[in-house]
Amino acid sequence: MYKLLLAFLLAVFVAPAQAAINVVATTSSMGMLARTVGGDAVKVTVLAPPDRDAHYLQAKPSMMLALRRADLLMAVGADLEIGWLPAALQSAGNPRVLPGKPGYFEAASQVSLIEKGEAADRARGDVHPMGNPHVYLDPQRMATIGKALAQRLSAVDPEQAATFQRNAQAFAGQVAAHLPQWRDKSRGVKGVVLNHKDGNYLMTLLGVPVLGYVEPLPGIPPSAQYLSSLVGRLKGRQGVILYTVFQPAQGPNFLAQRLGWKAFRLPLEPALDADAKAYFALIDQWVNAVAQAR
Amino acid sequence: MQFKLLAGAAALSLHTPLLLADDSASLQKLIEQVQKLEARSARQEAEINRLRTELSARPASAPQTQQEPVSSPQTGSFDQSTQTPASIPAADPATVSQSATGPLDAPGLQPLNLPGLGQTGTTTAATAFNPALSVILDGVYYHDDRQGGVSDRLAESLGFGAGTSEGHAHGGELKQGFNLRETELAFSASVDPYLDALAILAVGEEGLEVEEAYGRTRSLPWGLQLKFGRFFSDIGYMNRQHPHQWDFVDQALPYQLLFGGSLRETGLQLSWLPAWPFYARFGVEALQGENNGVASYLGPDEDHPAFSDKAGPRLFTAFAKFSPDLGYSHALQAGVFGGRALKHQEFQPGATDDEALDGDSWFAGTDWVYKYDDPRAFGQGDITLQGEYIYRRKDLRVVDSTDLARLGLGHEAAQDGLYVQGVYGFAPRWTTGLRFDTAGLINQVNETGPGEQSLASIQRYTANLTWNPTEFSRLRLQYNIGRLPLDGSKESFNQVYLQYQFSLGAHGAHAF
């Protein structure tokens, strides 16, 4: 009994003492980047699993515990996690990772955002006046974010600064190496219909026109009437429909049937423990789906 | 040709020093010209950036019904040019931050930018407003078959005392017909690097009330947090939820009858979240002690000089919450809590007139919550199960009565309440909830005179149907059926609610 108690106390008080930088990433793509740039120097915990919409999570005790022990919080930002991250942060009682502190890193703040400055009017759906937050599906922006992250990690662990820089550069190099091939594949593509504005950065990068959205307004599921009008507008044209694993399939399937297009159900996020390779495979998946639109 | 050029260049180079030496006025002119040119190119750059932003914003602002592609390849190529090219070394901090701030962004509105670290602030709409403001509207159509008197009768017939019959029960009393429940105005912001503050004002029929107004520390070490002001106590699970966070229109019976609503007090709270391998949170609160149910304080006055005087804080509570890590889909939290009021004073109906009772009280309870988060969109498949049990004990003494023989007699009341409820997302944006709540499983009043008296209990069954068009609006239909003790026998009662709730303004995040 005494030994058991001692073991428990040891587990409780010794376990948190680790050398690695404790990075808490809100989504698995952020986790991927932290892992890629941080290498062995970081230990990454991901708060939102890849099969769930990061807009609509609930703050959970496990998140608070993870944040309590974090050295660096890596969020997507631009209001994406607004429904749960502030609440989790508030209860975590960890001043190091609050917004404004060096331990708080927001990806969307490191790059330029598209669709910025939209009217903050919820009659237009779940709009993000600060810009489209889905930067993580844009490898080029991810490369920029990676470099900024290397800076930030260097502040936490200056000894490894060179490693972080090198890793970030390597990631940027890989992105640059992949880019021509992604652009080649999607050259001459007629266009895509997205379920949500989550693919906009990638389509912009590839130069692929977005012909419309399954959602009439961001975050609002489509009505039959809206879908019919969309069909009427796109009839006779060519394209593909892209939606993500957690988005309802009815709307995309309806469109696919009426238009005779292909609908692709794609992951929006790489696996929980993804590395850069898995992330590029995810982009490949999107690009390959886009390439069908001709 | 070449020779001529060379000669010209040589002449110029010879002439230049002369010009510098001789004519400083023309030099000044040149400098001015260069400055003008620079200013012009800055203006042009700003204009280009503005156009660029406009262009990249176009796919969003363009109406969906437009025939042409919403996002064109041209937009793409423009946007790429705003990217930091891969060749620029990451070591250059200016590049990193420049990509985020255009020349037209007012520097005052930008989040704090630490040198060499990029942006540290949030890119959130809420930061544009200081403080973040939100308004919650809540309206209920209510009908019951007891002429609206269900709540009054509950308190009377069950002997739960001052609980609901006096004062303001939070989100409680409803009239038959249309009701505008409290309209909540919430303001929140960071005060300074050390404090966050929140104020929630409730505009009800009795006017404006400060529902919550507290400050909370931001930077205490070791997972400690200090909260002070007026707030909902962290005891239990449902206690600190505002009415718009409830899964049912009305509050569960244990809260209604034992606390007269929620335990909301003025005081301070210290909580601790240790960095253990599992989630645990502990807290203690020192509160003024004004709650009708557990810490009623009336104090001596002209009419009732018998009540004793007691300075605050008079109510002390403690809570502990535990949560094992069950992965991404499941969450379980279990809590225990208790509180002790150094003073509890109330009136009880006596033989001829109300009697004044003075003493103290304590309560204890446990709260359990389980949530299942289904990957499907719009809450489909999500499950929440929760239950709480609360026990309250009052040790009082008659201090004033028209029957002098009763002065000094003891009055001990032991009462409890329990609820269990479940909510299930049976379709996207639709939930249904079932609840059973009861009070008075233990309902013993022990008086020195008449001896022990076991009072009746109440049971109630509730079902509801909720439609959430978005995260910001809600429509709910609820039906309660219960059995209420009346004059020795039990009679059933029915309650129907139709509720709407809207939230305007800043996007609020709710704690677990």
Major sheet attributes of chain A:
4 strands, parallel
Oligomer: heterodimer
The low-confidence runs of chain B, each spanning 5 or more residues with pLDDT under 50, are: 7-21, 59-115, 162-171
Question: Can you tell me the residue ranges of chain A where pLDDT is under 50 for at least 5 consecutive residues?
Answer: 14-18
Order of helices and strands of chain B: HHHHEEEHHEEEEEHEEEEEEEEEEEE
Q: Which value, in Å, is the CA radius of gyration of chain B?
A: 33 Å
The percent range for helix content of chain B is 10-25%
Query: What's the alpha carbon Rg of chain A, rounded to whole Å?
Result: 21 Å
Widest sheet, order of strands of chain A: 2-1-3-4
Average residue pLDDT of chain B: 78
Order of helices and strands of chain A: HEHEHEHEHHEHEHEHEH
Protein name (chain A): Zinc ABC transporter substrate-binding protein
Keywords (chain A): Signal
Organism (chain A): Thermithiobacillus plumbiphilus
InterPro entries (chain A): Bact_metal-bind_prot9, ZnuA-like
Describe the protein.
Chain B: Residues 62-86 have a biased composition (Polar residues). The complex is a heterodimer of chains A (294) and B (512). With 294 residues, chain A is α/β, with parallel strands linked by helices. Chain A is built from ten helices and eight strands. In chain A, helix 5 (139-156) runs antiparallel to helix 6. The longest helix of chain A is centred in the middle third of the chain and has 25 residues, at 161-185. Chain B is built from seven helices and 20 strands. Chain B has 512 residues and is an alpha+beta fold. At the A-B interface, helix 3, helix 4, strand 4, helix 5 and helix 6 of A face helix 2, helix 3 and strand 2 of B.
